[in-house]
Design brief:
With 232 residues, the protein is mainly alpha-helical. The chain has 10 helices and 3 strands. It has one domain (2-231). A 3-stranded antiparallel β-sheet has the order 2-1-3. Helix 2 runs antiparallel to helix 5, helix 2 packs antiparallel against helix 9 (188-207) and helix 7 (134-150) runs antiparallel to helix 10 (215-231). The relative contact order is 0.16.
């Protein structure tokens, strides 16, 4: 059993597919600075729009949530995922400090998105709807999968990398679906986001002890965004 586990870990790490997926995942670091979508002559670049639309007069609680909502999922997490996978492919493991940092980044990304959702519900002064809890439902399912995967003794990929990918996917899919729903013209950043989501999704499946266990996370994710498209 131990020999089979070691062989499995080595095979997953050294397989060319893993290297290709890691290179494709590097797109997640770039897309914030690239044109994402356009409507008429207006081009949407995430980093530029964020700087222009972040009001400095927001209450500290909301300002911190808005700031972390961008920095954690859009900058810290994809950068840490790429760096972590490149190091893992090179030496086959992460240090204890790197593992802890990965979990911290994943938690920060998840909490920042949930924080913005809660702030949005509070500031709207409207009745709370079930759709407002999508982030809580998805991240709850993601946390359940990450915890279950952490207990595996044969998972070939450091679980902290999986945790960051689980935190990143719902965020990226929101931006992809907004373009589909609101019907602007997708540009290079949008296509890179799609490539990144697909690459991360395959890596999560490869990281699971049994591929079907990823349904714990992917099923609620697909259901939530399916409902979002249907309602829109």
């Amino acid at each position: 059993m131990i020999a089979r586990s070691i062989t499995n870990k080595s095979f997953i790490r050294t397989h060319p597919v893993q290297t290709v997926l890691t290179v494709l995942g590097l797109n997640g670091v770039l897309l914030i600075f690239l044109p994402f979508a356009a409507r008429n002559r207006e081009v949407y670049i995430p980093a530029v729009v964020f700087i222009e639309e972040l009001p400095l007069s927001l209450p500290p609680f909301v300002f911190f949530g808005a700031l972390s909502w961008w920095l954690a999922p859009f900058v810290l997490v994809p950068s840490a995922i790429s760096a972590g996978y490149l190091r893992w492919l090179r030496i086959g493991q992460l240090s204890r400090g790197e593992e802890i940092a990965g979990y911290v980044f994943a938690l920060l990304a998840a909490c920042s998105i949930v924080l913005v959702e809660i702030a949005d519900m509070v500031l709207r002064y409207q009745p709370v709807e079930i759709g407002d809890f999508y982030a809580l439902i998805i991240f709850g399912a993601g946390a359940l999968f990450v915890i279950q995967n952490a207990r595996s003794t044969v998972s070939p990929v450091p679980n902290s990398l999986v945790a960051m990918q689980v935190a990143y996917l719902p965020f990226a899919i929101v931006w992809i679906l907004l373009v589909v729903i609101e019907d602007p013209r997708p540009l290079v950043g949008w296509y890179l986001a799609v490539v990144t989501v697909l690459a991360y999704s395959v890596q999560i499946v490869l990281a699971a002890e049994r591929p079907w266990q990823t349904l714990i996370f992917f099923a609620p994710l697909a259901l939530a965004w399916g409902l979002l498209i249907w309602v829109a």
